[in-house]
Amino acid sequence: MQDTLLTLDTPAAVIDLDRMQRNIARMQQRMDAQGVRLRPHVKTSKSVPVAAAQRAAGASGITVSTLKEAEQFFAAGTTDILYAVSMAPHRLPQALQLRRRGCDLKLIVDSVAAAQAIAAFGREQGEAFEVWIENDTDGHRSGVGAEDAPLLLAIGRTLHDGGMRLGGVLTHAGSNYELDTPEALQALAERERAGCVQAAEALRAAGLPGPVVSVGSTPTA
C-alpha cells in the first residue's frame, strides 16, 4: 500500500522534487551569472540525495556545521567540505582522520589561540591543514571584526608561518534572518561582501595568501 500524507509515519521528509530541482537550478544559475562558486550548506537539508542534486547542478563542494555531518557526506562521496564552525582543539584528531582518509576538509578560526592550536597539532602530525579566517561583518556572532586588521593579520601569520595553508576568509551575517525587505537584505549583502573583501585585501597587502573570499547566506543570496 502506498503511503499518503495521512498514513505516512513520522518523522519523515516529504519533498516536492520538481520544486526542489527548480530551486536548485535557479540558485545555481544566479551564482553562475555572477561568476562565483556556490557551496551550499547541507545543514538545511541534511540529505545526501539533495546535496548530490546540488552538486550535479554545478555546486562546488559543501558546507557543514558538524564533523559528524562531514563524516556522513564524505562517506557518501563528497570530498570538498568546509567545516564552518570555529575549530575547537579537541576536535582536531577527528578532522585529521577525515583528511587522512582523503577528505579535502577545510577549517575556520577566529582567534590566535585556535590558530596556534591548529598549527601546533598540524606540525606534530605532519599535516598542513587548510584554514580560513572567519570575518564578522554584522556584529552578530563569531568572527574577526572587519576593522580589526591587527587581529586578522596575527591569525593569518600564525597559520601561514606555522606551516598551515591559509585558504582565505569567509563571513556569514546571521542577523540577515531578522530582515524582511529587499532593500535591507541588499544593504546587508553589500556589507558582507565589502567587509570580507576588505579582510582578504588586508591579508594580501601584508604578503599573506587569501585566495578565497566566501560570503553569503540564504536571505542575502
Chart the SSEs and their pairings.
Blueprint: H1 17-34, H2 48-57, E1 62-64, H3 67-75, E2 80-86, H4 92-100, E3 104-109, H5 112-125, E4 130-136, E5 144-145, H6 149-161, E6 165-170, H7 182-205, E7 212-214
Describe this structure in words.
It is a single chain. With 221 residues, the protein is of the alpha/beta class. The chain is built from seven helices and seven strands; from the N terminus they run H-H-E-H-E-H-E-H-E-E-H-E-H-E. It has helices at residues 17-34, 48-57, 67-75, 92-100, 112-125, 149-161, 182-205, and strands at residues 62-64, 80-86, 104-109, 130-136, 144-145, 165-170, 212-214. Strands 1, 2, 3, 4, 5, 6 and 7 form a seven-stranded parallel sheet that branches. Helix 4 links the parallel strand 2 and strand 3 (104-109). Helix 1 packs across helix 2 (48-57) and helix 5 (112-125) runs parallel beside helix 6. The chain is globular, with a radius of gyration of 19 Å.
